[in-house]
Amino acid sequence: xxxxxxxxxxxxxxxxxxxxxxxxxxxxxxxxxxxxxxxxxxxxxxxxxxxxxxxxxxxxxxxxxxxxxxxxxxxxxxxxxxxxxxxxxxxxxxxxxxxxxxxxxxxxxxxxxxxxxxxxxxxxxxxxxxxxxxx
Length: 135
Hints:
elongated, eight-stranded mixed β-sheet, mainly beta
């Protein structure tokens, strides 16, 4: 009696550059593995990839030394690379991949007519990202 176990590799759909890519990954694949595959197949460097999934932004910017940055609109978390299963990325919904064009810090101040009315003691982080750009 021979028993065969066929393990289905999870497939994750990613909308990138006006195309839907179906990527097959190992069961224990991490987000970094997904980003490497996107980089190889679609030519977007990992530090420039911005992935959106269920109201969260996922990045691995160069200035974080390869760590995963998760931003939910309120809180920014820097962590080691995590498994897709731990991030609840199961292939049920597609991810969207954008390409970072530029990012910068700007002073938080308000005013008019050359007069500063309020100046904060922090900087605002700004990003310029293109989603569904040309290949």
